[in-house]
Amino acid sequence: MDARYFDGKTAAAHPVNLALDGQTLLLRGGGIELRWPLNEVQISERLGNTPRRLTFPDGSHCEVTDHAALDALLPQTRRDWLDRMQHSLPWALLSAVLIVAALLASYRYLLPWGAEVLAQRAPESVLQQMGRSTLETLDRFMLQPSTLNAARQQTLTAKFAALRPLPGDDMQYRIVFRSAPGAGPNAFALPDGTIVLLDELVAMTKDDNEILAVLAHERGHVERRHGARMVLQSSAVGLVIGWYMGDVSSLLTALPAAVLEAGYSRNMEREADEYAAATLQHNALSPCLLTGMLNKLEAAHNKDEAAPQSGTQQAKVLDYFASHPATGERAVVLCPGSR
Amino acid sequence: MQDQQQEHTFEFTADGWEYFRIWIVNLLLTVVTLGIYSAWAKVRRLQYFYRNTRLADASFEYHGTPMAILKGRLIGAGLLLVYIVAGKLNPLLGIAIALLISLAMPWLIVRSLRFKLHNSSYRGLRFAFTGSDRDAYRVFLLFPILTVLTLYLLTPFTHQRIKQYQHNNSKFGDTLFNFDASVGSFYGIYLKAVSVMILLGILAAILASTGQPAVLLLLPFLLTLLPVAMLFIFAYLAVSLPNLIWNSTGLGEHTLYSRMNVRPYLWIAFTNLLGVVFTLGLFIPFAEVRMTRYKLEHMGLLAQGDLAEFVAGQEQQISATGEETADMFDVDISL
Questions:
Q1: What's this model's pTM, rounded to 2 decimal places?
Q2: CB-based contact (8 Å) between A126 and chain B?
Q3: In B, residues 139-178, which contact A (CB 8 Å cutoff)?
Q4: Considering only residues 48 to 87 of chain B, which have any Cβ-Cβ distance to chain A shorter than 8 Å?
Q5: Residue B159 lies in a domain
């Protein structure tokens, strides 16, 4: 068969003939006569219809464009599995489907798992940083100073501080009071143990224990590192998207906002509910307190939905119910016999 | 001598469908190995493009090894991670790390150029890059800083210096490339693009200041015209600059040329963009092949005498780290 030989010392192309003599490859033509043991010849992998190369130990090589003749001459270089995959249409289509499946699966399973593992090991300073930057963003865009008087704030803070922690709890907490008239009644926890309590929620009940129940629920989110997990998950998604779009820097600034948008999963809410129930019982309080509060929140939420003009700008971000499990279902778990 | 001159045009024999199959199988393997396989995929992609590039009836070859590229990628990913984590912990620390990385950038670029050229061959002879670190710090750090300080007035000058550094220090075998485009010719191209933009701006300002209601009616029309004009300017730069650069580049006594035109280039770039968006990326391999074909088939070599007279130069071992780390931080210095 025909090939072109390049000696690796000059750019000259020498037309040669390739033949096999037992386990020896023979190159002949144009005053060239070379013999190489077959097992010392490196044969390039097949790649589409591109020329194949036979590279020899001294750095010289042959370029072959006649694929069929090469396959006939050297049957042992027949196509391997990867080669066959790379040239088959069914595999191409299957690959497209599998890629999408793999991406969805990693988003659904791998990502939450990885985030949980990392979040449990996140050092204190990272949690502090996450909490600080999120609160800064919230203060800038959505939250206003609280109108509760200092005495009321102190009472609630003291009552929360008196709540005995469950064994194994390791976080420090502080409550910050804010107001968000457009957002409706709410409270939410940041990864560093900061719990933001909105005036609107305080105004909803006369019973401080009900507020404590909500705070215990938020504490559950912190203890289980739900906030940190959401930060990590959305960072990872942002990183992948940023990579795809070719801009890594922009996502660094978009992070805190993305975190809030994500919302907790139903599973996380259940975990926080269980935690809250345990904490309440540990403090000789009834888990039904949380149920009561949930019902009130749901009622307020439904009223808001029915009369959209009442809330000025519905800040979706703070929407307590966006991803919460159905209140009735939670109530049954928390407080059997409540309905 | 003149009658011996021979024109060789690059041929590009790749096929969109063929490349699509290779691309998607390698993408799948990359996804299921969580990105590790991407080094192998990259080698395969470059091999496919190099081997399908032919000049004077011989093809190019890419010799980079996946392990070298993987190592580079890991170091690159490490640097990126350090930067992100540092930036999260303390913005000042993040800035300090970013500064350190930009200090290392010229050094990395030199490594990446060396790796890229050393691992490219044609007719059995390797390319090589011999630029010094010292000069790299001048063109990739000092001049860019000056460019920013002069409000980008120095952009054409810096661009010319970068290309001059790259091309004057590249070799094929032991034959040096040479580059003789003047700073003035770079300014010429940039000035044309900028003056069209300024003209458009003045036109819009005049129209707006007349305050005629008729202008408001024209507004939708003007608003669509503007992006189209910007696309044209972008295509003009993307065509004229490579044309200038390659037409001013020689290899020994031979000269290279590039003769792209704005309109076909714009058409390909625009339809590629639409294709990629509407197929959610599945069109990427076809787009790559189309664009490369257009570029290569408008390039070539004006040879004085026989191409067989090139001889091999010194071999050297090059690491892939530079190229991969530069990749990660989106520094694309196309040759």
A1: 0.73
A2: yes
A3: 173
A4: 48, 51-52, 57-59, 61, 80, 84, 87
A5: yes
Please name which of B165, B157, B162, B334 lies closest in space to residue B258, comparing C-alpha atoms.
B334
Residue B314's Cβ-count burial label (10 Å; 0-12, 13-18, 19+) is exposed
Look over chain A and give the mean of its residue pLDDT values, rounded to a whole number.
79
The rounded distance, in Å, linking the Cα atoms of B221 and B214 is: 12
The pair of structure tokens assigned to B166 is 């790259």
Pick among A9, A88, A99 to test the B interface (most B CBs inside 10 A) = A99
Q: How many domains does chain B have?
A: 1
Of A29-33, B3-7, B52-56, B199-203, minimum mean pLDDT range? B3-7
Residue B114 in any domain: the answer is yes
Domain-located, residue B187 = no
Write the pLDDT tens digit of every residue in B63-104: 888 887 887 778 777 877 888 777 767 778 888 888 888 888
Contacts of A246 in chain B (CB under 8 A): 330
Handedness of CA A151, A156, A159, A161 (dihedral sign): negative
- Residue A148 Cα, gap to closest chain B Cα (Å): 33
A57 and A188 belong to one structural domain: no
Domain extent for B107: 63-173+314-335
Tell me the torsion sign for CA atoms B274, B279, B280, B284: negative
A208 touches chain B (CB under 8 A): no
Residues A258 and A156 in one domain: yes
Residues A95 and A227 in one domain: no
Question: Quick check: B92 contacting A, CB < 8 Å?
Answer: no
Q: What is the pLDDT of residue B264?
A: 95
What's the pLDDT tens digit per position in B256-269? 999 999 999 999 99
Shared domain check, A304 and A182:
yes
Whether residues A96 and B282 touch (CB distance < 8 A) is answered with yes
Confidence of residue B323 (pLDDT cuts 50, 70, 90): low
Residues A188 and A257 placed together within one structural domain of the fold: yes
Share of chain B above pLDDT 70, in %: 90
Sheet holding A187-189, edge to edge: A144-145, A174-179, A194-198, A187-189
* Structural domain for A274, as ranges: 123-334
**Contact assessment for residue A186 and residue A215, using Cβ atoms and an 8 Å cutoff:** no
